[in-house]
Each structure stands twice: as structure tokens, then as C-alpha cells.
Amino acid sequence: MRVRLRVNGAERQVDVEPRVTLLDALREVIGLTGTKKGCDRGECGACTVHVNGRRIDACMTLAVMHEGDEITTIEGLDHPVQRAFLEHDAFQCGFCTPGQLMSAAACLAEGHTGSDAEIREWMSGNTCRCAAYPHIVAAVREVAGRA
Amino acid sequence: MRDVGYLRVGDTAEALTAAARPGARLIAGGTELVNLLKERIEQPDLLVDISRLPLTDITVGPDGLHLGALARMSDVAAHPEVRSGYPAIAQALELSASPQLRNMATMGGNLMQRTRCPYFRADHDLPCNKRRPGSGCSAIDGDHRAAAIFGASESCVATHPSDLAVALVALDAQVRTTARTLPARDLHRLPGDQPHRDTVLDHGEMILGIDVPVSPPSAYLKVRERGSYEFALVSVAVAAETSGGVIRTARAALGGVAPKPWPLDVDLAGVPLRRDELRAAIAPAFAAARPLPGSEFKIELAQRAVVRALTKPIGLMGET
Amino acid sequence: MATSIEEKPDFKWIGKSIRRVEDPRYLVGRGGYIGDIKLPGMLYTAVLRSPFAHARIGSIDTGEALEVPGVVAVFTGQDCKEKMNPCANFGPPTITQYPLAVDKVRYCGEAVVAVVAESRYAAEDGVEAVEVDFEPLDPVVDPIAAIGPGAPVLHEEHGNNLAYERIFEFGEVDDAFREADVVVEDKLHWGRSSGMPLDTCGAVARPALNGSLEVYCNSLNFNFFIWLVAAALKLPSNKFTVIPVPAGGSFGSKFFAHKVPTLAGFLALQTGRPVAYIEDRLDHITNSDHHGSDRYYDVRMGLKSDGTITALDVDVVDDYGAYLQFGVGTHGNSLSQAVGPYRLKNLRYRLRAALTNKCQQGAYRGFGSEVQNWVLERMVDKAARQLGMGPEEIRRHNFIQPDEFPYKIPTGNIYDSGNYPAVLQRAIEMLDLDKWRTEQERARKEGRHIGIGVVTTQERSVFSSTEFWFWFDKPAFPLTSSPESVTLTIDPTGEFQVQMHSQAMWGNSPETVAAMLVAEEFGVDPYKVNVSYADSAHSLPGTGPGGSRFTVMIAGAVRGASKRLRAKLFKIAAHELEASEDDLEIVEGVVRVKGVPDKSRSLAELASTAYFFALNLPEGVESGLEESCTYDHPYTTLPSDDRKDLGVFYPFMGHACHIAVIEIDAETGTHKFLDYVAVHDAGTVVNPKTLAGHVTGGAAQGIGSAMYEELVYDEDGQFKCSTFMDYLIPTAMEVPEFKLGHVETPSPYTEFGIKGGGEGGRMVAPAAISAAIDDALSDYGVRITQLPIKPSEILRQIETGTQS
């Protein structure tokens, strides 16, 4: 099936079977491998992207369901929280980082940053096996202006 | 995941026609169905994409709260009047899944989750009467920590995962479908000898919305091992009016203990909001509990949770 | 939050918290992991995993699968057996393994059939179309029953399910118990968890020129073991090249992970096309090389009435699962620090390795030493309670003292340096232990349950290879090398290149470590140093990351190569400046005559000479500026023939004290961290920022192993944790803010005095958490004897007053 997506501001036509997830369409068809596959079951958040401005797990939705949708991946993200991650050493192996960043940018936009506890809760859909969590929280906190 | 047909529908009539086809399944948020497709537990021929139907309304009026079947979990949870007037619903939603999944999943889809058990969800096709009717139940002789204490049968001991459904039962909500309106407490069915059927809905029937009457103060409490993103060991939703430390009316439902949201059918009117009296008042409802050896702890835990939900502001476990 | 580490006036870079040089790539999703590699014409693999714990494989019908559109080929274990040798194996030769099961499946999830197709989706369609006729056998699940009489046998060739048994005795154990005033005993169980990185193992194999095979792969340690995989594939080792791909986390799980590259290599050889086999989550969780330790203990500890520990008697059955790829190396780790930080002289260690119908064991952060730490600390706590001593009191009483180093422990291993009382004291002060004890009492009166767990454990680093074989009287291959190499190049314009001879594991910040050390040696900006990784066809000897060895070994290799490179630079500069080499120094990238700063040459000028002006070079000096160093383990000795002394095999001994403050909700069995202090001694700290990341990450995984994570098999051997909703990894909600501190006792044996610190957090946290829960619920007599600790178990103990 043909589906038209807007990915990072550019129009993309892809031809995929209905069963192909948005994640696989991005990684395998469009070639944007920045978005990662960690569990493929919506349980780790490594595949977090923004669809029409909201963060979702790209592994749990089908590409064909996103006709005309505006999709932002890590390759299209330009957000102060990226610099904050750098300053706060908010990663180690980097594998979960694209998902963490997409989620962090959304968490900030949603305003779920009133306290560290709130940040932790609203970042809990993104697993970091290196457990850089305290540093991720610090980075989000800083961008939220509570540094 | 097997390949599958796909049809995006533009209105409810079109959806109904498509959904009536044998082998058709509705898809909206996808967070449940895509999972089941990946495990090859569900193998439909056609996915009917209803995600763009205009059923996303969240309205609060003098007669209560109305939720469209396609309202997203995150939108409902964030709605100021839901938070103030129906906190058990907002809390149940925010204690579910993850922020990303709540942005995807819908009201209707949440209610249509299958009951859950590690054997049903296993990587491969184990004996499971839900997966293959008549093949047996691996869980009964297996690990029981997640097993039901109420309403299970010899065919199935799985529990229902929805937090929202528990809150809706406590709030006496109604579910509107394309065929009927029914109380939320009657939507899900007990497994009996047909555990592959989780709800009473017919093939092709579609949830249109949820109606919640004006609610007394309510709360949702969830006990789980991890502080976030996990199904409940037990959970409880309560909606109660009290005066002078005594319950006037109360309705409660339990989650994590049965194949469906389990209404706590005891009359609590007149019971003082004190631990011992509450324990005595709810005890009869637990006489019917039939745990497996590994799920016995849920009987005590559930009663403690009910008492806590009624007596304390949401505590250690339910903090959001 | 962290206390500052000591000033190091001798160093310009070492000891500074610098931002890692690897970091920018992560911010745009360019970590370069195995799943991101797409070769032209590449095929994809999906495997059929066994639905049974134990079954004979009857007929396999692949006909229908081959008809599936996109499917290119289907292979079975029989194909492997016919065309390759068994996989690399450090265990008994009677336990053989192929990447696809042959004749029998021995655990739920074991790979049985591989389908290769034009897409992963098509490969999965192919798997679904394969028909395998399994004939179920009785499963062997309980490791104790497995080695008892009458148990079904996993490997007929081996004869029984006891893969290894030996009793090691050091000192006079029976005498010590006879003379003990107090003996405490316990049965303990450490449950099975694993590293579970988000980046699974994967390999992309490509048939290349001249009959050689190239394998892109994120398994670690290949330069050390590559010839073993080549041998399995029946290739000459020089026709098999591994191109290292960075590991997005390993935590042990990519430590010489052999099945994935072996299978990808086999499939590429058979199809003649590039083939990717990237584990999906289910492959990894059910069929990885590396489930972690799963041990059942009977332990006794003898003490004098004043609290002096005199003897330890450990009887452990370890549930190794179906294969023994790594032998019993995880117990070498236990033996390297078996007596912890305590002056304990008499030790008996009986090990039985059981084979069961579960996935094989391998490495997980700590490699088994973390289990010994937990067991030892559990026993010390039990003894303290019995003797009425405080946790810090009994520990202080038994500590090896700072003036006793280097200290030889009964097993023969050496502890190089340490100051255990100082570490404990720092932790107590950082936490304000008295304040928390007061708060604990106050809360108890309100019916709240706060517990404080104080533990002190060892943190061994930098294995040497004798621990692979000292188990056996007649080892097949008594290896003594475990080197690491670095090639250092100054290019023609004066820029630095470092080539590593092992895989990148980003979590280790390999490039930051190398760049900082080069900066330290030459006074250049670490962010300007470029780091690359040699493929195995071009690599010098290297062992690879694992066992907290990377920083120590790379430091040695960088230092060695720098020394050689500096000598050459000085030779060229001395010739140009007409000075003696002895009078030269390097300051901030400039070689100059001491005391005469304007008599100098920049590195760029010297490089230009070295590459382009051969006639300006002193006699006998070759063109170019490149030097390598292979740094061998700096302190390895052989075991004695009778194995009463295992020799020195893990001597750079870090130490840590963790104090956890936990509140337990006695009604629900759930918990909350109120405070957590972790003080570590990892010798000279190179980069406090990255070390803090390691301590935090390790402690978080310790929390996981202690309270959330368990790879559960039910009584039929069915695997019950195939998703992250069943195998619970700590999220941001579960990992507290750690207060981190350091004490630095430099190692006398390593360059710069560095010790490894990558695993330490996980070696301590489970013991601290167990102690804190016991303390919180002491009114109920709760004692944690098995991990992970689930709310249901806490409730059960509170309810019944009995321990598990």
C-alpha cells in the first residue's frame, strides 16, 4: 500500500504492506535509523517519535494508519534539551537516547516538569539500561527552568 | 506478524459494514491489537481503521461525563473537569501504561483489552484456552502470582488489565455501542468454558462512547511492584459520599483480581471510616475468593487497598 | 550529587570531569549500532524458537516455508552439524552446542530453525510455515533435583547433569569451626537476571573476496577469541574478519556472545549473500548467551564472640542452564574476593554446576562476584544480629587494615591496596547515619518502617586468564595472556589518531578514556584526538572490555605507545634543535629544550619532518610517527599444582560501601528509597563524571536484581518473562538520586594507579537493599534470603513470621 507521510518536514511516499509498523517504515524503508528498536512492544520507548506533535511509540502503530501525518524523528529534532543532555551526561551507551530526547522534548512541551517526581513519572515510558535517569531528570529540569 | 488487509473508514456506517465481515477487526490506537498481531495471537484478515472517526469528544454536563470511544487516554486524563469531577478516572488513566501509549490508546480500545496472563502472551503457542479453545490452561498448574482470585474457571485464571474499566465500574458508567447501551460492569464476561470471549459484544459491534453519571468524590489506588508502567497486583476504585466520618453511599470495584473489573458488592452505608469497621464490612465480599496457591496474598492485599482508598488520601503507591 | 575527588597536581587531565568525546553522535541518533547497518543485497534472519523445555526434534518440514514469498533459504541444526564444527566452548567437551539445536532442544526458546529472507517480515512468515515435529521429554528445572538420582539427562554424551564439581579448601576450616564461639548458617538463593541491554546482539556477515568472510558484529572480545568462531565455521582464521560494531550496552551480555555471529556467518556462507541476524527482544531474552547467575547456597560462618570472623563454608549449586559455554568462570570471580574486605583466613568452597532446561548462563555485570558479595554480607549481617553488634561495628572489627596491603587472601589472590575504614567512614558521614537512626526510631513510633542497610564489599577489576582454567588439574589450554593494545599515530599535520584493538562499548566511553590519556601524555586537547577500531584482520593482541578491565589496560597500552612515540619525537627534535634528547620536554603539544622555551618544535613541524623530509631525519630513524604497545596484564601468577593457592588473577581490588535507607509499606509490601549513599574506591579516578555514571548504572541494575528482575521458568520449564511487562527493568521511578563519594587508594601495579570501576554498583546494592529491608521489618523478624524480593514475599514473611 502506498502511504504519504510528512517526515521531518519533507513529503515521503512509501510503499509498505499494511502490517509494517511505523518504526520499520522509518528505519527500513525511509532509511532513518536514528529511531531505535529496543523491545518492539511499546515497553521501552526507544522508538519514540512525535506524530502531529504528540509523542508515541512508533513500534506499536502501523505506517498505513499515518496517511498525511506530520512525523518528527530524532533526525528532525532541534531542541535545547539536546544540549542539556550533553551538559548533564544524560546517557552512556546512547542507544535509548533518541527516544529519551523525543520524550523529553514532549514532556517539556506538555509541561509535566513541575517537580523531579513529575519528570520521573512522565519519563517512565523510556527505559535506560545504563540508568542515566538522575542525569536525564537534571537535563529536563534545567530546560524547564528549575535548574 | 502475518500480513493483513487494511481499510480506513470515513464514518461509522462504513465502519459497521466493514467490521461485520468475518475476519475483520477494528483498530484505533493500535497499542493492544498490534501487540497481539505481533504475537500471532490475533490473525485477522482485515483491519478496519476507525482512528479518524469523530468520536473523540470529552464533555462534562449536568448529567455527567461523556467520553467518545476514540478519546485518547492522555486527553481524558488531562481534562480539567475529569480531574476535578471524576478523579478516579483521571488517576486510573495516568497510572496506566506510559505517556507514549496513553497518547495513542483510546477509551474503547482500553476496554477491549484481552485478559492477560504470561501463558496467553507467551512467545509460542502454549496450551491456552483463550488462544486455542479446548487446548487447556497452562497457568492453572504454572505460576500464579498474576492469577485471579475471583471469577476464574477451570478454563482460565487470567485477570483483566484495564485500570479504566475498574474506575468506570465504581462510577457506575454506561457503555454505548452501535447495538445497545449496557452498564460498564456488564461489558466484560467471566471465562466459564469460553475464555476466548472477553466481552459480551458481538462481532462487528463497536463501542461509541462512555457515559458516567455525576460522581461523588472518587479515587483510584493501584498496587504494583514497579513504581510505573506495570499492571496492577491489585487495584481499587472507590466513589463515596461521607459525612461525619461515616459512609453515606459508596461504590467500589477491584482490579487485578478477576477476569473482569470486580464490583465490590457490599453495602457500606453507615460504616464508619475506620479500619476495623471497614474490614468487617467488606470481608463478606472476599468470602467468595478462590485463589490459587501463588495468588493467595491478593485477598489480604485487596482488602487493605480498599480500606486505604477509603480512609487515606492516595498514598505511597498511588502517587502521581 | 557527588563529593569532589582529590586534587591531582601531577596530572593535567586525569581526575577531571570532562564531557565525553563520544557524546554528540547520540544526540542525533548516530551511535552506529548493528541494527543500523544495511549492506546491498542483505538478507534478514528469523529463528524458530523451541516451544518446549526439553524435547527430541523429529522431522522438520521446511517445504512450505520455502514457498513463502521472499524466503530464500531455511536451515536446521542438522545442516549446522553437517557443515560446521560445534561452537566455541570453555566447558567440558561432552557438552556441545551449535547455533541451531541438533537432535534435541534443551530449553524453551532455543533456536531450532533459521529462515533467511528478503525482509524480516518475510523471514517471520517463513518461520510460521515451518513444521517441526517435537517429541517432548521430561523437563529438568530444579537444579538440585537435576544433579540428584533419576533426573532426565540433558546431554547424553556427558552422562549426567553435573557439569562440574570440586571442593576448594583454603586454611584449616574444620578447626576454625570447632574453635568458633558462634556459627551462623543460612540457605540463600540468588535469582537469575541478566544484562538485558536495549541493543540486542547482532551480526551482519558478508562473503568477501578470496573465500573470506567478513562479519560486522557487536559481540565483544573478538580479537581474543576470533579463531574459535572461525574454527566453528571451518574457516582458516585468516579468512574470517570481524569488523567491530559499537555495542549499545552489554553489561556482560555481549561478552564473547558467539551464537549470533556464528549463525550469521554460517547463513552467509551457505547462501553466498550478506545476511543479518539481529536478535529481536524475544531472541535475546530467551536465547542469549548470557543469562546471569542463578545460585543456591548453603552457607556457614564461624566467629569468635568478639565478632571476629574465622571461617566461611560455602556450598553452592549453580543452575547453569543447558550449556556451559563459559565453564564455571563466574565462580573464579567469587573466589577472587571470596573473603570480602575481611581478615578471614579459612574458607571452604564447594561448587556444583547443574545443567537444567534453561537458557545458558554467561556474564552479567559482576560475573558472579556480586553474588558472593551478597552472600558474604548476608552472613555478616546475620552474625551481627546474633552477636548484638551494629552493622558498621562488626565490619570495622574485621576489616583488613590500610597498612596490610598488598594483602594475600586465602584463595591466593592479592588485594593491591585499600582503605576500608575510610570508605565506611566517608559513607557514614555523607549519609549522616545518626540522623537517620534517630528518624528511624521516631518513625517506628508512628508505625512506619524505615530500614538502614550498611554494607561493605569488594569490587575486583581486571581479570587475568588463569581463572579460566585453574578449575581443572589438567586444563586443555592453560592460557596466561590477557593483553590490550593501542596504536598511536601522529599524522603528517600533527593530529593524533588512536587505534584500539578491541570493540567499542559506548558505555565504557572508550574514546574519552583514550583521548584523555593521550592528552595527558602529550598536552593536547582530548577533543581533537580521533579514535578508531581495528578489524580483526589488522588487530594487535586485545582481550576487549569485560571484568572492569578497560580503563586500566588501555591506560597501560596508551602509556607504553606514548613512551615509544615520545622517544621518536625527541630523537627527531634533538636532531633538528641540536640538543640532547635528555634535555627535551613536551609541553602543550610542543617539544622544547628545558629552560629554553623558544628552542622548540611543534608536533606539526616534527610530523612534517617525519613524513616528508627523510633527509632531515637522524640516522637510523624511519619515516612516519606511529607506535603501538601491547600491554599485558601487569600482575598474573600461576596457581599451585594442588590448587591450594590459585595464584594472582584479579588483583586490582576496588572497594565500596553503600548505605540504603528504605521505607517499607508493611500493608502492601512495596517500598520507597529515602536516601542512598554509595562511596567507592576505584583507585585513581580518571574521569569522575563517567565513573559516576557507572556507579549509578551499576547500582540501578543492582536494584533491578534485588527487587524487580527475574528470568522465571515454571515447573515445566516454560519461560514466563518474554516481555518487559514481565521482566521489569527499573525506570526513572525506581532509581533514586544516589549520593556518590570516592576514596582513592591508587594501585601500586597499574599505570596512574587506576583500578576498574565499571561493575561496582551492582556488586553492592543488592546486599545494601536486603539489609535495609531486614532492618525496616526487624519487628516482624523478616530476613531476606532470596532475590529478587517481591512485595508478595515481604507480605508473606510479615504474615507468617517465617523466612523463605
Structure write-up:
The complex is a heterotrimer of chains A (147), B (320) and C (804). With 147 residues, chain A is an alpha+beta fold. Chain A has helices at 22-30, 80-88, 97-110, 116-122, 133-143, and strands at 2-7, 10-15, 48-51, 54-57, 70-72. Chain A has a 5-stranded mixed beta sheet with strand order 2-1-5-3-4, sandwiched between helices. Chain A starts with a strand and ends with a helix. Residues 314-320 of chain B have low confidence and may be disordered. Chain B has 320 residues and is α+β, with helices and mostly antiparallel strands. In chain B, the strands form 3 sheets. In chain B, strands 4-5-8-6-7 form a 5-stranded antiparallel beta sheet, with no helix packed on it. A 4-stranded antiparallel beta sheet of chain B has the order 9-10-11-12, with helices on both faces. Chain B has helices at residues 12-20, 33-38, 73-78, 80-85, 87-94, 99-104, 107-111, 163-170, 275-286, 297-311, and strands spanning 5-8, 24-27, 46-49, 58-61, 64-68, 174-177, 181-183, 207-212, 218-223, 234-243, 246-255, 262-263. Chain B folds into 2 domains: 5-49, Uridine Diphospho-n-acetylenolpyruvylglucosamine Reductase, domain 2 (2-Layer Sandwich), CATH 3.30.43.10; 58-112 and 160-311, Enolase-like, domain 1 (2-Layer Sandwich). Chain B is globular. Chain C folds into 3 domains: 1-10 and 399-463 and 650-804, 2-Layer Sandwich (Aldehyde Oxidoreductase, domain 4); 33-389, Aldehyde Oxidoreductase, domain 3 (Alpha-Beta Complex), CATH 3.90.1170.50; 483-631, Aldehyde oxidase/xanthine dehydrogenase, molybdopterin binding domain (Aldehyde Oxidoreductase, domain 4, 2-Layer Sandwich), CATH 3.30.365. Chain C is built from 19 helices and 29 strands. In chain C, the strands form 7 sheets. Chain C has a 7-stranded mixed beta sheet with strand order 3-5-1-12-9-10-11. In chain C, strands 7-15-14-13-8-29 form a 6-stranded mixed beta sheet, with helices on both faces. Chain C starts with 42 loop residues before the first strand and ends with a helix. The mean pLDDT of chain C is 95. Chains A and C meet through helix 1, helix 2, helix 3, helix 4 and helix 5 of A and helix 17 of C.
